[in-house]
Amino acid sequence: MTKRADLKDKRVHFVELSPSGIELMDESSARLEQLIAGRFAHLNPEETAEVTQALDLLSEMLLGE
C-alpha cells in the first residue's frame, strides 16, 4: 500500500494498493463469488429473482442507493 498527500490540499491523502494487495483482493473476490454461487445454485429462477430483489432492497435501506 502506498499513501501520498495531495500537493494542493495537505488534508487529502491518496491510498493505493500494492500489486500484492491487488492480487489478494482479486483472490478474495473470486472466492466470495464461488461461495455465493454455491449458496444459490439450488434456487430456481423465481427464487433467485426474489433473493436478488431482497438484496437490492437491503442495499437501498442500508446504503441509500
Count of the separate structural domains: 1
Report the C-alpha radius of gyration, rounded: 19 Å
Could you say which overall geometry the principal axes of the C-alpha atoms support? Answer: elongated
Strand content: 5-15%
Strand order within the widest sheet? Answer: 1-2
State mean pLDDT (0 to 100 scale): 92
- Secondary-structure element sequence? EEHH
Report, as a whole number of angstroms, the end-to-end distance.
29 Å
Roughly how much helix do the residues carry, as a percent range?
55-70%
Structural class by SSE content = alpha+beta
Q: Work out the helix count.
A: 2
Chain-wise SSE layout:
Elements: E1 2-5, E2 13-16, H1 19-40, H2 45-63
Antiparallel strand pairs: 1-2
Report on the structure:
The protein has one domain. Helices cover 63% and strands 12% of the residues. With 65 residues, it is of the alpha+beta class. It has helices spanning 19-40, 45-63, and strands spanning 2-5, 13-16. The chain is built from 2 helices and 2 strands.
Write a short abstract of this structure.
The protein has helices spanning 19-40, 45-63, and strands at 2-5, 13-16.
Features:
65 residues; alpha+beta; two-stranded antiparallel ribbon; 2 helices; 2 strands; elongated
